[in-house]
Amino acid sequence: MYLRHYSANGDAHSRQAAYGLLRSLTFLQTTSGANAGNVVLWMQPDGTLNPSADPVELPDPSDSAASYWLARTVWALGEGYAVFRSVDAGFAAFLRARLELAIAALERQVLVHYGDWNIVDGRRVPAWLIVAGADATSEAVLGLAAYVGAGGGSARARRALERFAEAVAAMAAGDTQTWPFRALLPWGESISDWHAWGAQMSSALAAASAVLRSPRLLKPAVGDTAGFTPLLMTAGGPDNGWLPAPIDRTQIAYGVDARLQALLGVASAANRPGLRQVAAFVAAWYFGANRAGSPMYDPATGRTYDGISAEGVINRNSGAESTIHGLLSMLALDANPSLAAQARTLGPATRTLFGLHTIEAESATLSTGATVVTPPSPWTGESQWSNNSYVTFAPGSTATWTLPAADQPQLVLPIVDLVTDRNAGRTTWSTAGRPLGTINHGTGGPQGVSAAPGALLPRTLPRPLPAGTTHLTATASQSPGVARRVDAVLLLPLISKLQLGSAILLTSADTHPRSYKVSLPTARRSVVTAYDSTGALKSRSVIRAKTFSAPVSPGGFTVIL
Fold it and tell me: With left for phi above 0 and alpha for psi between -120 and 50, is residue 510 left, alpha or beta?
C-alpha cells in the first residue's frame, strides 16, 4: 500500500514507511541452512523470532516449508524492487537478493512438482500451487510480475512467473450455465469451494500476461471478471464462501478489493473498458451499496471496517487486513477519478437485486423415505453442507418445494453428493409433471488428494424452470444402492439484475440473446451498453423513457446508467 501510494503521489512518508516495512520483513526471512528463503511468521515485541506457534500451526516451524507468508513476501519484495530500483539502487539490490532467495525456496519446495497433476474428485489440478492454493500463488505472481516487469528478474524469476501463472490459469472452471460459472477456483484440493477473500487470481494473470506477452493467460481471467463477477454481484456481492452454495455470506474488504483490482487489471490488459463499469458497482460497496446500506470506508480516518455479516450487521473494528485492502481500493479509485465519482454516487443509492439464490433441501415437503440428516459437522473437509443439513432419498421417495414465482425462466442446479458408486441411483426433477432433467448420483470421479470421498457439486438440469412456476419435485429412482444426498437447490434467473438507484447491471446465463424489460421510477436519459461474454462491446444506445427493453448477450452483461 505504501509503495503504491508513493508511486502515485511521491509521498516521502510513504516511501520511508515502505522502506522500513520491507527491512522489517526481511528480518523474518531465514537466510541460510535447509530453510533458506522461507519466512518466520512471528516476531515478539523484543525482536525475538518465534518459529512455532502454540497451539501448533502448519508449517511448523513456520519457516520450514512454503507458506502464505512466503507468497506474500514475494509480492512485497517484487513490488518493492520495482519502486526502489529508480530511487535507491542499493536498497533495490538488497531486495533483489532477498527475492531471489525466496524464489529459490519456491523452486525446491513447490516448482519441483512442475508438470505433475493431482486428482481432485476426478479433476486434474496442478500440483505446483503454493500451499495448494491459487489464491496464495496469485499473490506471489503479482510480486514476480512486478519484479520481472521492472527488468530485475533473472531467468529463474521469469521461469517461476511463467509456471506459477500457468498453474493459476488451470484453475478456471465451469461455463455460463455450469457452476462455478467461469470463476477461477482458489483451492487445489477442492472443486466445490470458492471464496472472495484473497482471490487475486485474475489480477495476477492480467499482470503476468502483460509482462510475459502471453494472451492465453488472459482468457481465464476474462472469464472470471466478465462472466463470474457480474453474476456474483447480482447474487449479493463478494461473499466469503460458496461451498458450493453461498453459505458464508460475510463480506470483507479483502474480497471486495480482490474483485475491484481484478476488474481494473483485466480491463487494462485485455482492452475491455466495459469491465470498468462493473468495477463501479463493486467499489460502491465501500460507500454504502452493501447489505448494511452503510459506508464501510471512513475517509476521515482512512479506516475500513472489518466486514458485514449475512444479516447486514457491520463489524466496526478495523484490522490491518481490512484497512490495507480498503486503502489499496482507494488508491485504485484515485487513479481512476471518473470511476471513483461513479462509485460514490452509486454507494448511497437504493439497492435491489434478483440473481442466484438458494432453496434448502430440508425446506421441502418430504415423502416417506426422504429424511433430513444433520451431520456432526457441516464441513466435509473440502466443502460444506448448506444450513448444516441435507436430505437423503431412499428408492422411490420424493421431495417437493414451494417456490416464489419468478417473472422469467430460471436454471435449476440441485447440489448433490456425487459418489463413485455406479449403483448410487438417480433423482429425476420435474415441475407440474413436466420433466426438467435427471441426475446420476454415481458420476463422481476418483477422490485423489481430496479430503473426503464424493464431491458436493451443483448440477445444472437440461431444462430451466418456466416463468411463474411455484413447485419443484425431486423423485429418487427405484434402484437400490447408497442413499442419494441432496444439499440444496440453486435457482439462477436467465437474466440476473443488480440495481443501485437508476443504475442497473444485468448479466445473462442464457445461450441466446435476450432482451430485458427495464422500468425506472421516472422517464430519464439512460445509456444502455451491452457487452458479450468476453466483455467486448456489442452495442451502445441512448434512450429517453421510463420503460424500455435492454439487450443482453449470451453469457454477457449490460450496464444501464
Answer: beta
